[in-house]
Amino acid sequence: MAKDTKKYGQILGEYKSILSAAQQLNKLGLLSLTNLTRIQNEYDQQHQNYINIKADIHGINKYMKKMNNLFETTAKEIVTYVKSKTPKKSVNLINMSKNGLSNIKTAKSDLDIVIDDETTSVSLKQYEKNSSIQLCSGTFLSTICSLSFERVGNGKFVDTQGKEFLSKNIQEYVCETLWCSSF
Length: 183
Hints:
Elements: H1 3-27, H2 33-52, H3 57-84, E1 91-95, H4 96-99, E2 111-115, E3 118-126, E4 131-135, H5 140-148, E5 150-153, E6 156-158, E7 164-166, H6 172-182
Antiparallel strand pairs: 1-2, 2-3, 3-4, 5-6, 6-7
Helix pairs in contact: 1-2, 1-3
């Protein structure tokens, strides 16, 4: 299988998982028909995009069929998460692949789950052996820095003196200096 075919299958698989979750949430009365229709249209548009660029649709469909159980498992995890939050007003699923990565907060997310106006960004981890949804919290150091410093970009922070730094490049002594001088 060509590298692009697998990549396109993985992307379309995320769309499929979100669509399947939306269908289940709609049946439960938690997601509006308008939102379900939008999500169905996004899936159809992505599939059509692959046809338009002359991607290997047969290979993509073969990959999708092979991975269908994984996509359905991801959809069930999304539904379980939504139900665990006991929505009172509304639920929406926003495919961030469709919207692009223009927002710092959601830059690593595949999906925003909006429950009663509260948004949770998640990453859909769909590997050939298993799947899961994970909160988009970044790396360990990035998470620590997010709690302590103002975030100005992906893994990029500013200390109390206005100096910007990347959490991934932070040395132990720099972390101690920044941490101790700030707190």
